[in-house]
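ligand=pyridoxal-5'-phosphate
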Amino acid sequence: MAKTVKRGRHSLSVPGPSNVPDRVLRAMDHPMIDHRSQEFFDLVKHVCTGMKRVFRSSGPVAIYPSSGTGAWEAAFLNTLSPGDKILGFETGQFATLWRNMAERHGLKVDFIPNDWRHPIDAAEIERRLVADKGHEIKAVTVVHSETSTGIASDIPAVRKAIDAAKHPALLIVDCISGLGVHDYRHDEWGVDVSICGSQKGLMLPPGLGYNAISKKALEANKSAKLNRAYFDWQPMVDANETGSYPYTPAIGMFYASKEAIAMMDEEGLENIVARHDLLSEATRRAVHAWDLELLCADSRAYASALTAIMVPEGVNADAVRKVILEQYDVSLGAGLGKVAGKVFRIGHLGWTNELMLCAALAGVEMGLGAAGVKYKSGGVQAAMDYIGGNNSAHGR
Ligand SMILES: Cc1ncc(COP(=O)(O)O)c(C=O)c1O
């Protein structure tokens, strides 16, 4: 059979990498410059200052040529020593992978189990910290927006739990799919290290990993003994003061970052959050109308970056995704780890809008039928009704 040739725009609806604005793509199309020139120093300073605004942080932001996984590793290497104990929480696949990384670095992880359908239980964190009389736990490491489940946890509640237990542990947060999506506040929430990657809410291609660093984390850095070289904070933070870089930087990504930050400044963080809230609620309404179930079983903890949808018993979610991709050219996120084959994920983060979402939802709705899934029609209509009725709440 002849291969079908696709026409028109692909609907990239995975929860990262997200769609990159044309403006950002054009900004990247820039000749390389000397990374030891004043022009580049100015660019680095501009981007570092902009990223502080996005993290809502007054401290340094280290920007690595790495994916989010590198930024996870940087946070561990710079704050902890071999044999240190950390407290984690099983929000889903990313929390699990991060736990595995910690163990490979010789850290001892107390990993609170969870069912992948509920957010972090801050009261349990408090109990474990209270029980840790000798303050052996050096860091509480949590995922803010768990991209494998579509569940966002309450980071201020985790901070309160640490304070209520009067525990000195650092608070290290993966906000990889939460930054530029939720109202994330590094300083105000008392986070010590916020970890992010470029390819989600920040509207950039994959390729940069970030650590926003508190004073307390910088202090911990002085005595942390895990081996570090490439990911060492100090040379990065020192160099960034003057706009320089400890090694050859990802120059194109800095041009892209400058443009993406300009776009975030133009829209404003509050409006960005409102847009993601609107699109995620519209998606959930579509799911309810289809009579399918959300993986997130707690209505206070919906992630705004993506929605994970359970398929009925006996249906393989990957087969459904394949039909939707082949027939309607929509890429959806696969179920990961424990929920592989049981869920598919719709990303609605970064550079996206109402019509891009409705197009993706239409592809899903038609694809559910084509894949033989038992569902009710009317999901796209429910999303449109919600969006149409909420234009004033949109804030744009
Ligand atoms: C919450 C979360 N943490 C960590 C990662 C890993 O980041 P990367 O794939 O950029 O290395 C991801 C990637 O999707 C993620 O969503």
